[in-house]
Specification:
The chain contains 24 helices and 18 strands. 38% of the residues lie in helices and 10% in strands. It has 718 residues and is an alpha/beta fold. The longest helix has 31 residues. This is transketolase. It catalyses: D-sedoheptulose 7-phosphate + D-glyceraldehyde 3-phosphate = aldehydo-D-ribose 5-phosphate + D-xylulose 5-phosphate. Keywords: Magnesium, Metal-binding, Thiamine pyrophosphate, Transferase. InterPro entries: THDP-binding, Transketo_C/PFOR_II, Transketolase-like_C_2, Transketolase-like_Pyr-bd, Transketolase_fam, Transketolase_N.
C-alpha cells in the first residue's frame, strides 16, 4: 500500500508547487497513527468523562492484554489508537456480513484496506454528510471500484443518508444504493463511477486539476475559497492499466500537490499472484515520473483463511472461515450487521467537523463577495452551472457567401467565441491542438507553477488519460466545461472513458476531427470506418456530425447546454461549404431535419439522407434529379441518437429509397434497413479506406455526386 505526501498543509502561493506523491516498499503492518496526518488534532469526545467509560467493556473484551491496565487513566493517544482499531474491526465485520448476505461481491480488497478506509473517513477527509455536494469538500475516488464495500460501509458509518444498514444488506441487488461497483448517479458520497481499472486514477487527476485551476483563478492572499484535496485508492490492476501511468505522468508534470494516491499493493489479482505478470517496482516508476512516495504493505482478505491469496479477491466465505474471522476480533454471538453504538458517535466527530468547516467556508465566501465582488460573481456563476444567460448568442453564423473551410475550422471559431462567454470552458488535445484546431487563443496553457489559470490543457500523446481526466473535471462540481480533442480514429484509445462519461453523466465535449476517408493521404491507419457506429451505440452519448458551419454551431449549442450528457462532435479535415442551403443551427437539436424538398403537396419520390461532409453531395445530386423532374427530399441526419423515428420526413416506408449516410455504416446497420427501409440503399465503406488525395479516395469508394445520382436513378427505375 503506497500513499502520498505532502498531504494536508497547503504551500504558500509564492512557492513553486511540490510534486504529488511518494512510494517506497516496507513490510511493516499498517497503523493508523503514523501514516496520514489528521485534519483535527484533538477528539472533542475525550473531554466527556463518560466517553472512555462507554468504551471500557468493549476494548477490554477485544484487547485484554493491551487494555488490562486500563482504568482509563491512559493517555488520550493510546486510548484513541485502541478506539480506531475497534472501529476498523467493526467496519471489517460489516464488509463480511454484506458479502455473506449477498452471496456475491469483492471482499478481498475491502477487508485488506479497512484501516485505511476508516482512517480516511474518521481523521483525514473533510466532508459534510448532511450536504454531500458541499463544494469545498475533499474528494475521494476508489479507482479499485470492485472494493466498493469499503466505501459503502464508510459512508454508512459516517452518516451519509444514501447508505443505510438496509442498503448494506442489499449489496448488488437490483435497484439498490449499493451496486457492484460505485456509481455516482446512484449513491450520494460517490464522486465518480469506477470499475474498469485505472479509470479512477485519471478521474482523480482531473478532480485535482480542477481544484488547482480554480484556486489559481479565484483565491486571494487574504482568503481562499477553493482549497480542498483529492484522495484516490488504486490496486495492482489499476497500476497495470496504461491509463494510470498516463494520468500519473501528467499529474507529476502538472505538480498537483494536493493529490494523494494510495496504492493497495496486495500482490494479488484474479488469476493469482502478481508475480505471474507484474514484477516491476511501482515505487521506482512513480519516482521516475516525479512523485514523492511512501509505501506500506496490505493483506488482501485480511482475517480470512484466504488472506494473502487471489482466492480472497471475490466470492463468499465458508461457515468455518466466517466463524474464525469473527473469533479473531472477538465478534462471536453478535448479530449480522451489528454496529457498536460508540462507533457512530466516533464517526460523528468528523461529520460535525465537516459541518463546521462548511459554515466557515460560507463565511469566507461572504467576505469574498464583499471584498471581491466581480470575481465572486464569476465564481458563483460557475458553482451554479457555469453558463451566463444568452451565452448561445455568441455562436457564429455563416452564409453561403462565406469562404469554404473544414468543419474543424468552423469548430475553432465556435470554441473561441464560447470561451469569451463561458468562463468554465477548458480543455485540450492529445498533441493535436493545431490539427484539431481547439486552442483557446488568449487564454494560456494550464501549467504549474507558471500559469495554473490557463484554460488550454496540454495532454501530450495520452488520449486515454485525457478522456478520464476530462471526466474528473466535469464531475468536480466547479462549473468547468471540459473538452477533449483528437482524431476520430483514436477514439478507440478513449472508448472506455467515453462510455463512463455517459454512465456517470459527465458532460464532456469530445471533439473528433479527421472524421472520414476524406482525410486522404494518411491512409487506412488514420481513416475511421467503424468508429461512428460504435460510438453511436453508447447509451446517453450524443454524436453530432455537422455538415457546415451552422450545423457546427448548432452542435456546440446542444453540447454545452447538456451538462449531464457527453457529446462527440465529429468534424472534417477537408473543406465544405460554410452554409449548405437549408441547414439550420437550431434544427440540429432535432437530430434530423429536412434541408430541401421540391415535392410541394405531394410525397417525394426519393429521400437522400446525409450526415456531415456527405450532405453537400446529397444536395448536389438532388439538384440534378430535380432538373429531370424528380421530386426529391434531402435530409440532414446530424445526430442519429437525437433523432426521433416519428419525424414527419419518414412517414412512408416507400419514400425512403436512398440514403447517402456517412461512409461509417456497418453491414449490420445496412441489413437492418434503419431509416432507409427494405427498398433503400446505404452507400458505405466496408474496407479500411485507402491512401491518396481525398477527392481520389472519395471517387474510389463512390462518394461523388455522379455516383449518388446514378444509384438514385437506378432505384427510381425499379
Amino acid at each position: 500500500m503506497a500513499m502520498s505526501s505532502p498531504l494536508l498543509n497547503p504551500y504558500p502561493a509564492h512557492l513553486p508547487p511540490k510534486p504529488p506523491t511518494r512510494l517506497h516498499k516496507t513490510t511493516k503492518p499498517f497503523t493508523c497513527r503514523n501514516s496520514l496526518p489528521k485534519t483535527t488534532t484533538t477528539n472533542p469526545l475525550l473531554k466527556d468523562p463518560n466517553h472512555k467509560l462507554s468504551w471500557k467493556n468493549e476494548l477490554q473484551n477485544a484487547y485484554p492484554t493491551e487494555s488490562s491496565a486500563l482504568e482509563f487513566d491512559v493517555s488520550n493517544e493510546k486510548f484513541q489508537e485502541l478506539v480506531d482499531r475497534r472501529c476498523a474491526d467493526n467496519l471489517r465485520m460489516l464488509i463480511l456480513d454484506s458479502v455473506q448476505k449477498a452471496k456475491a461481491g469483492h471482499p478481498g480488497m475491502a477487508l485488506g484496506m479497512a484501516e485505511i478506509g476508516y482512517f480516511l473517513y474518521r481523521h483525514v477527509l473533510r466532508y459534510n454528510p448532511r450536504n454531500p455536494k458541499w463544494f469545498n469538500r475533499d474528494r475521494f475516488v476508489l479507482s479499485a471500484g470492485h472494493g466498493c464495500l469499503l466505501q459503502y460501509v464508510c459512508l454508512h458509518l459516517s452518516g451519509f443518508q444514501s447508505v443505510q444498514i438496509e442498503d448494506l444488506k442489499r449489496l448488488c441487488k437490483l435497484g439498490s444504493k449499493t451496486p457492484g461497483h460505485p456509481e455516482n448517479t446512484v449513491t450520494d458520497g460517490i464522486e465518480v463511477t469506477t470499475g474498469p481499472l485505472g479509470q479512477g486514477v485519471a478521474n482523480a487527476v482531473g478532480l485535482a486539476l480542477a481544484e488547482a485551476h480554480l484556486a489559481a483563478r479565484f483565491n486571494k492572499p487574504d482568503v481562499a475559497v477553493v482549497d480542498h484535496r483529492t484522495y484516490c485508492i488504486m490496486g495492482d490492476g489499476c497500476a497495470m492499466e496504461g491509463i494510470s501511468h498516463e494520468a500519473a505522468s501528467l499529474a507529476a508534470h502538472w505538480k498537483l500537490n494536493k493529490l494523494t494516491l494510495i496504492y493497495d499493493d496486495n500482490s494479488n489479482t484474479i488469476d493469482g499472484s502478481t508475480d505471474l505478470a507484474f514484477t516491476e517496482d511501482i515505487s521506482l516508476r512513480f519516482k521516475a515520473l516525479g512523485w514523492n512516495t511512501i509505501t506500506v504493505k496490505t493483506r488482501i482478505g485480511k482475517l480470512s483463511k484466504k488472506e494473502g491469496t487471489s482466492k480472497a479477491h471475490h466470492g463468499i466465505f465458508d461457515e468455518d472461515d466466517e466463524k474464525q474471522m469473527k473469533e479473531k476480533v472477538k465478534w462471536e454471538n453478535r448479530e449480522p450487521f451489528y454496529v457498536i453504538p460508540m462507533v457512530y458517535r466516533e464517526m460523528q466527530v468528523q461529520a460535525d467537523h465537516g459541518e463546521e468547516l462548511e459554515r466557515d467556508w460560507y463565511s469566507k465566501l461572504y467576505y469574498y463577495e464583499s471584498k471581491y465582488p466581480q470575481e465572486a460573481v464569476e465564481f458563483k456563476s460557475l458553482l451554479y452551472n457555469g453558463m451566463l444567460p444568452g451565452w448561445e448568442n455568441s455562436l457564429p453564423t455563416w452564409s453561403t457567401s462565406d469562404p469554404l473551410d473544414a468543419t474543424r475550422g468552423y469548430s475553432e471559431k465556435c470554441l473561441n467565441q464560447l470561451a469569451k462567454v463561458l468562463p468554465g470552458l477548458i480543455g485540450g488535445s492529445a498533441d493535436l491542438a493545431s490539427s484539431n484546431k481547439v486552442y483557446l487563443h488568449d487564454y494560456g496553457d494550464f501549467q504549474q507553477p507558471a500559469s495554473p489559470r490557463g484554460r488550454n490543457i496540454r495532454y501530450g500523446v495520452r488520449e486515454h488519460a485525457m478522456a478520464g481526466i476530462s471526466n474528473g473535471i466535469a464531475l468536480h462540481g466547479g462549473g468547468l466545461i471540459p473538452f477533449a480533442a483528437t482524431f476520430l480514429v483514436f477514439s478507440d484509445y478513449m472508448k472506455n472513458s467515453i462510455r463512463l462519461s455517459a454512465l456517470s453523466h459527465a458532460g464532456v465535449i469530445y471533439i473528433m476531427t479527421h472524421d472520414s476517408i476524406g482525410l486522404g493521404e494518411d491512409g487506412p491507419t488514420h481513416q475511421p470506418i467503424e468508429h461512428l457506429v460504435g460510438l453511436r451505440a453508447i447509451p446517453r452519448l450524443l454524436l453530432f456530425r455537422p455538415a457546415d458551419g451552422n450545423e457546427t454551431s448548432g452542435a456546440y449549442k446542444v453540447a454545452v447546454a447538456n451538462r449531464d450528457v457527453p457529446t462527440v462532435i465529429a468534424l472534417s479535415r477537408q473543406k465544405v461549404a460554410a452554409h449548405v442551403e437549408g441547414t439550420s443551427a437550431d434544427a440540429v437539436a432535432r437530430g434530423g431535419y429536412i434541408v430541401s424538398d421540391n415535392s410541394g403537396p405531394n410525397l417525394p419520390e426519393i429521400i437522400l439522407i446525409g450526415t456531415g461532409s456527405e450532405l453537400c453531395l446529397c444536395e448536389g445530386s438532388a439538384s440534378v434529379l430535380r432538373k429531370e423532374g424528380r421530386r426529391v427530399r434531402v435530409v440532414s441526419l446530424v445526430c442519429v441518437g437525437g433523432f426521433s423515428t416519428g419525424s414527419r420526413w419518414n412517414t412512408k416506408r416507400w419514400c425512403c429509397r436512398l440514403a447517402c449516410r456517412d461512409e461509417l455504416v456497418s453491414k449490420q446497420a445496412r441489413r437492418s434497413g434503419e431509416y432507409v427501409g427494405p427498398e433503400g440503399v446505404v452507400l458505405g465503406v466496408e474496407e479500411f479506406g485507402a491512401s491518396g488525395a481525398y477527392l481520389d479516395t472519395f471517387k474510389k469508394f463512390g462518394f461523388t455526386e455522379e455516383n449518388i445520382t446514378r444509384v438514385a436513378k437506378r432505384l427510381l427505375s425499379q
